[in-house]
Amino acid sequence: MIREELRKLIWKAVNEEVSFERPENPEHGDYSTNIALVLAKKQGKDPRQVAETLVSSLDRRGLDFLGKVEVAGPGFINFFLSRKYFLKVLSSIAKEKEKYGSGKERKRIIVEYSSPNIAKPFGVGHLRSTLIGQALYNLYKFLGYECIGINYPGDWGTPHGKILYQLSEKLLKGKSEKERKEILKSLTPQDLEKLYVGFHEEAQQDPTMEEEARIWFKKLEMKDKEARMIWEHIRRVSMEEFERIYSFLDVHIDYLIGESFFEGKMKEVVEDFKKKGLAHESHGAFIVPFPGEALPPAMLLKTDGATTYFTRDLANMKYRIQRWKPDIIAIETGNEQILHFKQVFSASKLIGYATKEKLVHVFHGLYRTQEGKFSTRKGQTVHLEEVLREAIEKASAIIGQSETARGLSPEEKEKVARAIGIGGMKYNDLIQHPSGDIIFDWAKILNLKGNSAAYIQYTFARCRSILKKAEAMPRNAGDAYEFSKEETEIIRTLNAFPEVARDAAERFSPNLVANFVFDLAQKYNLFYGTHSVLQAETKEAKEFRLFLTQAVAQVIKNSLSLLGIQTPERM
Ligand code: ARG
To answer: Are strands 76-81 and 66-72 parallel, antiparallel or unpaired?
Structure first.
């Protein structure tokens, strides 16, 4: 990567670590650094002077990627890439294809994502976790990491007592064995939702219900046969719904290891903390304090001896680290769990489960409509499956009006509609930094002319259509052609892709990739508006532009695939 080479170059000259920018304006070079300004300040010297001296002392031998190096403004150093290197970028893309930008990092990362709660509908929050988590997984895999994807659904804990109570009281009570079997077999996610919402409404009138729910959960924990059997059904119904959503989203998570998996592993955790004297009793509960840290204590055992979400997460950390020995563990959830993960990570280090591992909580903001909140608490939850279906329908309507999609078969059209509809939903999420809120607006999600997946997919299809019409593909970009401003802009952008992918992974920010690919598509369309590819002025120009078009199509595809978005050939 170029910025690594430049870093070494400066290091050799002044023994300083520097970072580089890729200036927006091509007149400021392809890379730029303010190192001379920093050094001048330290040494009390004139920054331009420092920059000039630095530039003249650079050892440029063997660096044929480098064109001119300029001192600009108050003392910036701007590096321009050579023409020869630009041509090399294009041939690397042609050669490496879907591997262009990838890496050979020999490390291991666990990415935990999605993790919906059973007996509740799969909400938009879990959609965000699924999309962001999958993009991070894809990114790390692309960089060469061994990735372990884990789905950790909430299938344990006191809330499950509520649904158990409801089911047995409202649906199963007084029914024969045969009827009960029937009821459980034909249970739907909607039934579960109704019961769950019903519980909260009724419990306001009748506070004893909370106690009943607690008893039901206790039964579940004590392996009561009846409780266990009902719970299995609830779990099955929910998981079937989640699987439908994953298949809509084209998401596959390597492991399904839910909270209930840690049921038998929590005693050990409590023992570990006891032994090391890192937890103590407080008002009948058992808590972990964080001395010297601005964190409130966390609860390992409740007053009734029941374990908590926190206890399960510690068992979880211990298990994951022992089993996989990862370099990084990244967990994606909503931002309401920030404190929880601070406690979990701190406690894992205190007790020694985690030592050198990098523990990262990637958190996301809310999903909102322009008017406000996307869902309301009392039963009007937005059903994700419906939203996804609607996205596909709306995309279908767009394709119905498209000239270029005319020759597609109904099956192909259906596939393309999925790619655009679901791609639009994914992109709308991933274009934002995870921590930000998302505004849900169909007009934006499916806007063929704006910052949307459809716009980028359309650019890809345009490239592919040009390439298909060309009678022969050139084997290389050709040396003789003088590229234009618009073409130079595209190559500069293509060159940045490997660096963008690394930054996006390192900062857990898939939005960097989304921004990048939108920028690339815009630059290609700008070029396309000013230059003709198939009717180019000269043979050299035509060959170069075809080669460039092929590279753009490839890098759009590589970028979108990191975001889990498909690139149909026609639309
Ligand atoms: N099921 C949880 C929720 O929906 C998310 C799980 C997050 N992961 C974890 N290791 N606690 O709130």
So the answer is: antiparallel
